[in-house]
Amino acid sequence: MIAYINARIPFSKQDAFIIKDGMFYEVGKKHKILNHSVSQIIDLKHQTVLPGMHDSHLHVVGLGMQMQMVDATKHTSIASFLEALKAEDTPVVMGRSFHEAQMRENRMITRDDLDQAFKDRPVIVYRACGHMCTANSEAIKQANAIDGVPEASEDIDLKRGLFKEDGMQHVLKLRDVPTLDALKSMILTAQRDLLSKGVTSVGSDDFHVTKAPYERVIEAFKHLDESGSLKLNVFEQVNLPVLRTFDDFLKKGYARKQYGRYTMGPLKLLADGSLGARSAFMKSSYHDADTRGIALFDQPTLETFIRRAHAHDMDFAIHGIGDGIIERILDAKEAIDTPGRRDSIIHAQLADHDQIKRMQTLNVGAQTQPIFLNSDIPIIPERLGPRSNETYLFNTMIKSGVTTTLSTDAPIEDTNPFENMYVAITRQSIKHPSYPPFLKEEGMDVYRALEAYTKTPAYFTYEEKQLGQIKKGHRADFLIVKGFDEENVESLLNTTVRQTYIRGECVHEEDA
User: Fold this and answer.
1) Which residue of 19, 204, 311, 437 is surrounded by the most CB atoms within 10 Å?
2) Do 481 and 495 form a contact (C-beta atoms < 8 A)?
3) Cα 107 to Cα 130: distance, rounded to the nearest angstrom
């Protein structure tokens, strides 16, 4: 047993704890903790200790994969980004995280831009939202040679080389199918980043990120767990959008299966697109375009997936951004009405006040990303017009009794939980500080933001009695951080992680 004393634990009167067998054996005041017989005493010298951060929705494999691509966030002009792409020597050049609002040109990168830099190599660039990409002529030519690219489609603009939602698969098939070793490398790359940011648990959508068969992804996580290399607690959000593939998953008994630190979680469906790509499905047309976006499932199919998940003791965690698709998800939930389920909508970004009331009534939670405001603040009025004032209502969700978590959707946004909390509290964009806070009254307080990142996500994984708090009987997942001051929200921008512990093991230590 190891005693940690002189800890500063925000929102707690306790200042010491004992760890035994990877659990918090005792938490209390120092003088009581020192009455126990322990093998070691570690004096934290009043450093701040927080529960491990639980990012309830991201993409571990996608994060690892995109960390190997050219990062557009490091550039402020299309010209500069093109120069970085030209430095790559891979057969297919891949770029990521492009956001028009960050670029001097204030527009999406196009086929013509890429063609000017690349004549004979395929190039594909993901928009920041992950719901749209741009391809050059060579990429389109090679994709067309494989099995054809439609001349016209609601999710393809060949003239500009833009591909949205399902249309993206026409060019993304140029990517190699990752081997088992490549998948493991992606997972470990992502894990290093997450642990350095203090993230100890994740809800992760990994099956639909690459072209690898879903069982190969499971095998990669299993191998890493068996070797002791997987340190994160990973709850797979099962994204198998073809019904026969989901049936195969269920038939093989994978539902709720656990492999050490890797656990099969809820059904995940990508039901619509993103605000930035104008593919989130709306009740009415966008303010700046004659489209309502894209609904990726009709109502009967949506209900079929949910019924089969519930029948196998699986909740749903469905991606829903537009108010149109949120309405459909709630209608499906109401029609099926399976008691006791811990279902949720991932994002719930444009849920209006009436829909939030329905979420509370139907016991549908929200897995939200305040950090999206960091990038989206400049485009919200353009896309939504007057409808802007009823969006990103995350504090209203919490106050209304909707179980609400904070997450990053990485690699869509950076994995830093403290920046995410800063935006959740201030409603201020870090990238665009000249913009005023967006619906400032929707900012949550520090306590609620921290709870939504630690304690609350454990509800969706059925581990609320053992995960998410510095509390006796809980797993010893905790952080030692510097710079955090719950009385000064600006401190979140300078908070860094000194040490990350999972089950009492130090899995990350800041460089001296």
Assistant:
1) 204
2) yes
3) 16
Q: Which residues contact 32 (CB under 8 A, 6 or more apart)?
A: 16, 26
pLDDT at 487: 97
Query: Residue 339, preceding bond cis, omega within 30 degrees?
Result: no
H/E run at residue 214 = helix 214-226
Closest CA to 405 of 290, 504, 266: 266
Residue 144 and residue 488: Cα distance in Å, rounded? 55
Whole-model pTM: value is 0.89
Q: Do the beta carbons of residue 426 and residue 228 sit within 8 Å?
A: no
Half-sphere exposure of 142 (CA within 13 A, CB side): 18
In this predicted model, what pLDDT tens digit does every residue of 427-458 receive, in sequence order? 999 999 999 999 999 999 999 999 999 999 99
Q: Are 15 and 7 within 8 A, CB to CB? A: yes
- Residue intervals in the chain for CATH 2.30.40.10: 2-46+474-509
CA dist 236 and 266 (Å) reads 7
3-state SS class at 200: strand
Q: What is the pLDDT of residues 179-207, one digit of tens each?
A: 999 999 999 999 999 999 999 999 999 99
Contact 486, 448 (CB under 8 A): no
Query: CATH 3.10.310.70 in the chain, residues?
Result: 69-172
pLDDT digits (tens, 9 = 90+) for 153-172: 778 999 999 999 888 888 98
Q: How far apart are CA 372 and CA 409, in angstroms?
A: 9
Residues near 86 by Cβ (< 8 Å), separated by ≥ 6? Answer: 117, 118
**Which amino acid belongs to residue 234?**
V
Three-state secondary-structure class, residue 346: strand
| Residue showing tokens 């800063």 | 422
8-state DSSP, 52: P
Report the distance separating Cα 86 and Cα 55, nearest Å. Answer: 34
CATH code for the part of the protein at 2-46+474-509: 2.30.40.10
SS3 at position 390: helix
Instruction: Give the fold, CATH level 3, of 69-172.
Output: Diaminopimelate Epimerase; Chain A, domain 1 (3.10.310)
- Measured distance CA(262)–CA(183) in Å, rounded: 15
Phi, psi of 270 (to 5 degrees): -95, 95
Query: Locate tokens 């659990």: which residue?
Result: 23
